[in-house]
Amino acid sequence: MIWLLLFLMFSSLFLFSIWPLFLKEIINDKEDHDLLNTLERRKSILYREIQYLDNEYLIENIHAEDYNSFRAELLSEISEIIDQINLLSPKQGI
Questions:
Q1: pLDDT tens digits along 9-36
Q2: DSSP 30-77
Q3: In Å, what is the CA distance from 7 to each residue of 12, 14, 21, 29, 51?
Q4: Non-local CB neighbours of 67 within 8 Å, separated by 6+ positions
Q5: How would you class 56 by CB atoms within 10 Å of its CB: exposed for 0-12, middle for 13-18, buried for 19 or more?
Q6: Does this model's pTM top 0.85?
Q7: Virtual CA dihedral for 77, 79, 83, 89, nearest 10 degrees?
Q8: 63-82, pLDDT tens digit by residue?
Q9: Are 49 and 75 in contact (CB under 8 A)?
């Protein structure tokens, strides 16, 4: 009786451990979550760069043409990052 119980326990453990091998697609949520965190960090860095650029413009350390072009580049990059975040967010359930 004990042997049967041990056999059932070990066989269920074995099946539980190899079950992912039988799945058609292995889902790796951690990879998507890491990418989402990286994009969020990059977005916050770019927002800080815009704040720094605004301050430099206010104290007249940068010309208006340069300010406008740099700010447009930063906003464009932020827009791309937000699009990527929006594509990943439904997969995360956020």
A1: 888 887 777 776 776 666 665 665 788 8
A2: HHHHHHHHHHHHHHHHHHHHHHHHHHHHHTT-S-HHHHHHHHHHHHHH
A3: 8, 10, 22, 34, 65
A4: 53, 56, 57
A5: middle
A6: no
A7: 100
A8: 999 999 999 999 999 999 99
A9: no
